[in-house]
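ok so i was messing around last nite and threw this chain in just to see what happens. nothing serious, just curious
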Amino acid sequence: MLFNHLRTALRNVWKQRATNLINITGLAAGMTATILIFLWVTNELTYDNYHPGSGRIYRTTTNVKKLKWTLESAPLPLVGSIRTTLPGVEAVTCLKPAFSTTFRMGDEFFIEKQSAYVDSSWFTLFHYDFLEGNPRNFFSHPFSLILTQSKAKQYFGTKDPIGQTLRIDTIDYKVAGIIKEIPANSSFQFGVLMPVDALLSNPAHREYEMSWNYNYQIYLKLRPGARLDRIAAAITDMQTRNTGNKYDTYYSLISLKDIHFETDLTSQGGIIHAKRSTVTIFSILGIFLIVIACINYVNLTTARASIRAKEVGIRKIIGAGKTSLFLQFLIESLLISTLALLITIGLVYFTLPAFRNLTGKTFPSPFANPGTWAIIGFTLLAATALNGVYPALLLSSFRPLNVLRGATILKFKDVFLRKGLVVLQFTFSIILIIGTLVIKRQLDYVQHTDPGYNRSQVFSVSISDTSTSVIKQQLLEQSSVAGVTIANQSVVNITNANTGSADWDGRDTSFRPTVAMLSADEDYKNVMQLQLAQGRWFDAGTPQDKHNFILNETAVNLFNLRKPVLGQQMRFQRDTGEIIGIVKDFHFASLHEKIQPIIIRNRDYGRTIYFVRSRPGQATQALAAAHALATRYTPSKPFNYTFLDDQFDALYKADQKVATLILVFSAIAILISCLGLFALAAFTAQQRIKEIGIRKVLGATVPNIIALLSKDFVRLVLLSVVIATPIAAFAMHKWLEDFAYHIPLNAWFFIGAGGLALLVAVLTVSTQSIRAATSNPIKNLRTE
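result:
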């Protein structure tokens, strides 16, 4: 029976191959996009789940109330106290990201940005696949390294890495283990691991590391039934007993599975974080795309129902039951979905590298992952169910006598459903078009909004040397260099902040504002092209300026300083001086955040970053000059530079990825919708071919015929615009709320999206309308 159904299905699919080619193409495009999206979504939602007992692993979060800090780091001494005094904790470990470690091998230098220090319990909580070596060998010597396969190849090529050495400062670290690549859904993307004992072996470093500074991430594995609130309270008590807790610090615990979606941290320490809202958006987008693709099949199958009505009538008369007919049409749907899926698997294979680049995720080979096949199987079942159930019910429910008498087969509700599906399809597409337009316009706004400084032609370089004035002067002597300044942070993203240290006459003692801090020299204003609202910048010839302050306009307004502001005494971080200038507000963070108050000082301490403005067209020469100086003064360090334009772009990297992905999937959605509309328009024109012939004989022109065949579809698209507009407006309003500074949602976005969808629909339908309108009416009227 099943073989007979399958053979019949194959025959019917081949007989209607033109229509089915459109169905299969649309389904393959939609299924490919859906599978790629859900590969990404699954990766995001399963972060760190592969570790044994991951549901019982937590990380401490440090909440410093007086400073308004939320930190993922905590003091190292807590690890020992937790291990020995808290029976509810099964195991505890810690990690310290190294951020930027300089390795030396022979005469070559490498800056490793994916390294971290871990303690002896790290591999007790977290799972790694060792290819060579083991944790015991790693921790038996403090100056050991564990490398991933890719890092071992990067540093040692085809050599056996075990026993090889990399030098950090004056110490050789020996490779003690090789592990498999870190899974894409791991928060700990560190390709190089080193023992914490390496830091503690130096007495000077040990004193600092064992102080109660917030330098380490602490992870706990709790025993079953342990109370989170009691564990957190006990850790807070440890802090209070050892430090007095003058900043009102308390600890909380966050589950390992929730760490990936933390968004409220004051600063981040090398752990990959994401927004849960982005996952939700793409989950909905994946559902949209598979539904849009399946709508084509349902519409075309129900539209062609009258053609297959006689087949159903004859089958029923000769004894076919409703269940048998239902199964027949469902198998046809499954066959088309399977053919589409085979194409989809090929498309996924070939498009995955590009998708990896778009998302920045290092997905492993998807077809070696059982989870991928689960997603593919789910997509196939969803497509078959969406494609097959209603058409199969409709086609198997025809009454044979009515069919053979020539009675109308399709009911009003069936036609209404088909039109409703077209509206739904274009509603989804228009929402995506509007989203694409708004996101692109917002990102253009971000790129072209005046931030209050000029980042063009400026690069930064760190030269760790005490002779800063000498290096600066030698840079200024280069003909390719227009200006040089030294500071502790880049103007693009100033992250240092302090709460409660700022004081001035008349301050309400309960008011303890959080302010950003910048240490910059006398040339910072000119090199960055900041604008002063009042007063002056620091003067190299005025020693007192080492203690004076410059505030931005936001700080002046927030502090409610009495007039005149200039000349007032101010105290900040145990230093006292005058306010000598007010700088116009500039964006020293991304446009996601409001401009905060900032205090600028001319302090030498901590200033190790040189910012060099090159003359137009001479950036290469300026870089070469800076490289030569860096090699001369710090020969043991690699030359590392960053252009401010690149730092600025990095602030919006995640937004750019979202915009690109939505643009790509919007194009796919429109393509699928147009394929369905094309086939539906062709079928409609074929059904009305005699009507068209009669109208032409009676004098109808080609434009009349085109308008006749297009108007119903135009109405459906216009209805889609009306439905999509408020939905898209709400969604984009919520998205723009994430930016403190954003574009207004004006009507042109919705008019433009509606106009584009209407134009595409008209062009799609017109190709079939023109063909029908220009055909020979005599030939059409002769044909029965």
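not much to say yet. The longest helix spans residues 322-359.
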